[in-house]
Amino acid sequence: MPKYLYSGNYTAEGAAGLLSESGTARHQEAKNIASSMGGTLEAYYWCYGEKDFLMILDIPSESMAIKFSLTIGAWGGFQGKLTPIITVEQMDEAIATELPEMRLPGE
Questions:
Q1: I want to staple 55 with a disulfide (CB 3.0 to 4.6 A). Which of 13, 44, 69, 92 is the partner?
Q2: How far, CA to CA in Å, does 47 sit from each of 52, 53, 73, 75, 86?
Q3: Alpha-carbon distance 44 to 26, whole Å?
Q4: Is pLDDT above 90 for 88?
């Protein structure tokens, strides 16, 4: 199942919601959302610095992952970023893939 990193920063509205509901409630809701899409929540963290939060989700289809990201983005409680995650096996497969001959810029 494809894995995605979803990370972002809270807006004032999103931070207020977190403060009123608790971290445990938001974590549980993230689990519920992943499950309702037929996936799982692998990791869920808050952080400080460049990002306020991150989670790793298994989501069964790319279309569903995109719609998930758009739906949350339209809400406005935080500015999120959806990033596909590549496994070690996928990287090895990609490295072994033959590309056609091509001329790169400046060659």
A1: 44
A2: 5, 5, 19, 21, 22
A3: 10
A4: yes
Contact 77, 13 (CB under 8 A): yes
Burial class, 53, CB count within 10 angstroms (exposed 0-12 / middle 13-18 / buried 19+): buried
pTM, to two decimals:
0.80
Query: For residue 32, which phi and psi values (nearest 5 degrees)?
Result: -60, -45
Domain segments of the chain as ranges: 3-96
Q: What is the CATH number of domain 3-96?
A: 3.30.70
Summarize pLDDT for 61-80 with one digit per residue, the tens: 999 999 988 988 888 888 88
How far is 66 from 4, CA to CA, in rounded Å? 10
- State which H helix or E strand residue 57 sits in: strand 53-58
